[in-house]
Amino acid sequence: ASTSMPIQAMCPYCGNYIVTVTSRVPGLLTWLLCASLFFCGCFLGCCFLPFCIKTLMDVKHSCPVCGHELFHHRRLPQ
Ligand SMILES: [Zn+2]
């Protein structure tokens, strides 16, 4: 998956055609930015700023019917 927007898909777990529910989770890019801000001298909490920036977050798509996670959209390849 290459989108952070909800998409239509067939859930492989419950078999329903659903529109995925997206939720944002901290990903590798978030941690990298956090670390680089930390090493630039931002010791007093602003190194956690990337966690507040939605566009930097990974996106988890899950099924609204059964709640299973269908896929995970990452900002950086892992
Ligand atoms: Zn499902």
UniProtKB/TrEMBL annotation:
Q: How does it sit in the membrane?
A: Peripheral membrane protein
Q: Which gene encodes it?
A: LITAFD
Outline the extent of the LITAF domain: 1-75
| GO CC annotation terms, alphabetical | cytoplasmic side of late endosome membrane; cytoplasmic side of lysosomal membrane; nucleus
What is the protein named?
Answer: LITAF domain containing
Q: Which keywords does UniProt give here?
A: Membrane, Metal-binding, Transmembrane, Transmembrane helix, Zinc
User: Which GO MF terms does the UniProt record name?
Assistant: zinc ion binding
Organism of provenance: Chinchilla lanigera
Alphabetical list of PROSITE patterns matching this protein: LITAF
Per its UniProt record, what InterPro entries does this chain match?
LITAF, LITAF_fam
Which family does the entry's similarity section mention? Belongs to the CDIP1/LITAF family.
State if Lyase is listed as a keyword: no
The listed locations are: Endosome membrane; Late endosome membrane; Lysosome membrane
